[in-house]
Write a sequence for this structure.
């Protein structure tokens, strides 16, 4: 017998993204879904926010930004 498992509700998303256009797209999409969004421009800013106790439901990271800096 298969049990139906409901996915946890996402109430707030933390986006770590250095591209302003992508930030706006995420913010618009999540606002349309009634999900709060907090945005950090880089990993350092993200860590400062998280170290202050911020605990979102989901974190989306732009890992390509870190890769660009190494090149």
């Amino acid at each position: 017998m298969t049990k139906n498992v409901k996915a946890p509700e996402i109430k707030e998303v933390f986006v770590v993204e250095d591209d302003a256009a992508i930030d706006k797209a995420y913010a618009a999409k999540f606002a349309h879904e009634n999900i709060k969004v907090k945005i950090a421009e880089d990993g350092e800013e993200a860590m400062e926010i998280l170290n202050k106790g911020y605990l979102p439901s989901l974190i989306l990271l732009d890992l390509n930004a870190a890769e660009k800096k190494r090149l």
The first strand starts at residue 12 and ends at 16. The radius of gyration is 15 Å. The CA atoms of residues 26 and 32 lie 10 Å apart.
